[in-house]
Specification:
Blueprint: E1 4-5, E2 27-31, H1 36-44, E3 48-49, E4 58-60, E5 65-69, H2 77-91, E6 96-100, H3 104-110, H4 125-136, E7 140-147, E8 150-160, E9 163-171, H5 176-190, E10 195-199, H6 203-207, E11 211-213, H7 215-225
Helix pairs in contact: 2-5
Length: 241
């Protein structure tokens, strides 16, 4: 049986998560709420919510865990050209702009837009409200790439101490989300963040330089990094390339 949590219950130990043989690998518990206190407790312990409309709140802690080292981001030749174009535009015609936290809610809502070979989204109104609360408290952040004052791509996630947890990204223009990610990774690296949590293992993330850690290794990293001082000023650095 999946452990059912009331709002005051602690999470089970992450070692109790379901294994691959169960068919629901990484599932730890269900129930409780999405209050800021619960969400921060979850993330500091390597746990995150992931559920669809009509389901109870489900809490996950995958094994292995995919992470992106901020000093190992793979920038392809085409992406490098895009970034250089953006940098030049920022200095000249201003058609392109990069920002952090300018429009968090628009970014998270853009991440709900339909994608090829994907039906529906896990980013429900309940999830949007939960992460928006964390944004207002200074824990959730967005990176936005703008073209002619329109949102072209971006991503959002949570930062606790010196640990960033990536949640979702979107593109309306080719390479826009990757470019926004590159600016964010550069900023995080310069501010002492060594790893970005990517949650699930995918070939796309591997192509960007992501690697896997065991659940135990990931938990040890969180113990060190989430207790460190938070980043106070979120402002993109234009010297990425």
């Amino acid at each position: 049986m999946i452990p059912w949590l009331s709002n005051n219950d602690p999470f089970p130990d992450i070692s109790k998560a379901y294994t691959e043989e169960s068919g629901i690998s990484g599932l730890l518990a269900a129930g409780a709420d999405l209050s800021p206190e619960r969400m921060l407790l979850a993330y500091t312990n390597g746990i995150f919510p992931w559920f669809s409309q009509g389901q109870p709140i489900l809490w996950w802690t995958p094994e292995p865990r995919m992470v992106l080292p901020t000093d190992k981001l793979v920038i392809s030749r085409s992406l490098k050209k895009t970034i250089k174009k953006i940098q030049k535009s920022i200095q000249t015609d201003k058609r392109w702009q990069i920002s952090f936290d300018r429009d968090f809610e628009s970014v998270i809502r853009a991440c709900t837009e339909p994608r090829p070979n994907q039906s529906g989204t896990w980013i429900t109104e309940e999830i949007i409200a939960a992460y928006t609360r964390l944004h207002r408290l200074g824990f959730a952040h967005s990176a936005e790439l703008w073209l002619d004052k329109h949102l072209a791509g971006g991503l959002y996630g949570i930062c606790i101490g010196k640990m960033f947890y990536g949640e979702s990204m979107f593109s309306r223009v080719r390479d826009a989300s990757k470019a926004a990610l590159a600016f964010l990774v550069h900023f995080l690296k310069n501010n002492g963040v060594a790893l970005i949590d990517c949650q699930q293992e995918t070939l796309h993330l591997k192509s960007l330089g992501a690697i896997t850690l065991s659940r135990t290794e990931f938990a040890k990293h969180l113990q060190k990094t989430t207790m460190q001082p938070a980043i106070n000023v979120w402002k993109p650095d234009m010297t990425i390339i």
